[in-house]
Design a protein that fits this description.
heterodimer; A: mainly alpha; two-stranded antiparallel ribbon; 47% helix; globular; B: alpha/beta; FAD/NAD(P)-binding domain; 5-stranded parallel sheet; 8 helices; disordered C terminus; Oxidoreductase (chain B); FAD/NAD-bd_sf (chain B)
Amino acid sequence: MPVTTIDNRQVHVNEEGFLTDPAEWDEAMGKALASQIGIDLGDEHWKAIRFLREDFAARGETPTLRRVTVAGGIPTKQLFQLFPQKPAKKMAYVAGLPKPHGCV
Amino acid sequence: MRRLLVLGGGTAGTMIVNKLRRRLPASEWEITVVDRDDDHRYQPGYLFLPFGTYSPDQVVRKRHAFIPDGVELVFGEIDRVDADSASVHLEDGRTLPYDYLVIATGTTPRPDQTPGMLGEQWRRSVFDFYSFEGASALAAALPAFDHGRLVVHITEMPIKCPVAPLEFAFLADSWLRDRGIRDRVELVYVTPLSGAFTQPIASQHLGDMLEERKILVESDFMVERVDNERKALVSYDEREVPFDLLVTIPLNMGADFVARSGLGDELNYVPVDKHTLQSTAHANVFAVGDASDIPASKAGSVAHFSVEIFVDNFLELIDGKPMTGAFDGHANCFVESGDGKGLLIDFNYDTQPLTGRYPLPVVGPMGLLKETRANHLGKLAFRWIYWNVLLPGRPLPLPALMSMAGKVVPADDAGGPRSAPPEEE
């Protein structure tokens, strides 16, 4: 696995730049990852990111957009405003998790 | 007497009862299968109904004809599963107890889940082809369409047979060319994915095929509603795709009784171990075929290959032994590409669809990810195999687990990590 430096720390990433070890993530890292894709994290962003982290810890996989809406209680419309164009991927990227599996 | 109860007499359920009735002594095991009606539909055939390639009678047979002697077929609507008391309640008040339960009730298109989809344009200019009724209605409407924007649309993944919308677009292109009106029609492919398909190599091939056919792709499109007045799809990020004829794949969901029974995820799929299909909540409950949440394609081939593993595992389980079989997510799909040709893709949880030959290296006879006449004929021949070999649970000489033989593995381009992927794709 390639190693890269984000927020002055070495982290393991896949070929698309997603962190491969969720344990290498903390909220400072989340902030740095968000700035890589031009997002400045506010409270509403953090609500989504924290849901992703908790749900991943509980179920072992990244929640889909639908799950963030249904189980996390954040409307899809809002997720598109917070993480424009590709909210599912962008949220996973910022949260240091793999891309959601929904698409096979 | 022990009881095996199978909910759903579709592809997976029918194969399971056929295989297990032969392996479980009738003096020890009672096998029951529940379904709501007596029509078994060959769902891959729906794709061909709108273009008149198949007639309705070619895709429907009587369900009971495929259920073997010694298996009771019960007709009824399922109200709920009570996993704690190991029984299933039907809506008419009957209760069916079980020792082991298999949920094989599949997935269903749900146009009711998208605002406006069932509006006044439904089955006037808005159609689906994932239901028998929808495909038949589209067959009646398509001949009148001779110009304008034809939009093929996927609401949300996962859907059953994820290649079918692409096939529909290819067949529509071919059909329009045959009628000499392709230049009067704008063909648009609207998808929530970032490209034509989910897996990189296949997505590239299939994306190129869309481009060659001048089919426009609108990607990353998550539909919020259908605007009936303006005849347009509207996304959550406020993009609009106007249409004259919309062929949509509605949201696909597992059965509602799964949710009522507290056994489902947010799309009513049953969470299971992806290698054994055993429920993560109840050791005597399995979900096989499209009804489970395994990260594989929702497709008949996955049902077929996973049933083979499930049956052997089940026999071990009831003998008190550990289950030794592990399903690998093997899927194998013919992709119609129009003009009497097709592609074949073969993949699993870990290996994406690759180029090469199938099932044997070099000689094939099927080409992987390549348009050939043989693949098209294979697809058509499969209907006969489905009714006569697959459903009765007779052995098909294809391995259940995916094989790398004949596949071309791309050289790993060890490109360095990229820092901002979500913007780039």
